[in-house]
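Q: How would the structure tokens look for this protein?
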Amino acid sequence: MSLHTMSDFPDYLDVDYADGEGEDPADYPALEDKIEKAVEVVRTGLEEYDTPAIMWTGGKDSTLTLYFVKEVVEQFDHEMPPTVFIDHYQHFDELLGFVDRWAEEWDLEVMFARNTDVGDYVEANGLDPGDEIPVAELDEHNRHHVREILEYEEDTFPFLLDTYVGNHLLKTVALNDTLESEDIDGIISGIRWDEQEARADETFFSPRHDPDIYPPHDRVQPILQFDEADVWDAFWFYVVPETVEEYPDDGYVPQGYDDLPNDLDHEDIPVSPKYFAGFRSLGSEISTEKSDEEPAWLQDLDNTTERAGRAQDKEDLMERLRDLGYM
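A: Here is the predicted structure in token form.
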């Protein structure tokens, strides 16, 4: 057991914060190159951080990241870190079921990060997404974030995830409070360079050290080098065959919603059924729509946008949210 304390952070680390600087997915031309780098980053993360955790949303990117962590844990005899699931109260029911199902299957410890001050007010007042929440009804902690950090001046804000105040309170504040309460020094996250312009300059080990903004910690980001098509190739030729005993060893790419081999059904596969139904990004149930009728991996990934319609990605909103600690 380490004798480090968070007051020593980051002095006890030996990580290269410039690793990945100036790179893009083309610098890792083969899928095997991308996987090799992911394993290297995960292994370093598990060896360097005292209290790492895995950000798991139930989506494809975080589940792929989780798979790499599980592989490194097994291969190098490390302890499996807990996962952190941000419950923003606006999830698809299918996504929550997916997380429950695979947390049990893989024997995962799941820590639910929730902004209960907002959640309790919503429940007590029977609010629906889009209803207004008075800032004055928030506790001091959340009012500080709204007034002093976000510099938001309105009397109310909508109970919606894909807005400046809603996203910050329901996701970022919930995450940062969990990082602080659990003394997490490294959060392993499944973001990618190609998915959003605000993430294109990230490095594999990304410092978040300003105590005025978030609990000092690092982001460990093993799949930056994957593009969307790479993620799906990794699932159908590595993750699923190695996770599902009845799946063909050499992989199989489903060509439709019900096209699974060997009498398997969706519950048997560690891929959310929403992706089979045509969704490419799983955000808020309220604001996320399917991109097409075809499964995500069969869509025109090169010429269409993965996160189209996500309000948090528009203009400079994503950049501002990330400056405040959003993933």
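The two ends are 29 Å apart (CA to CA).

DSSP finds nine helices and eight strands in the chain.

Upvote if useful.
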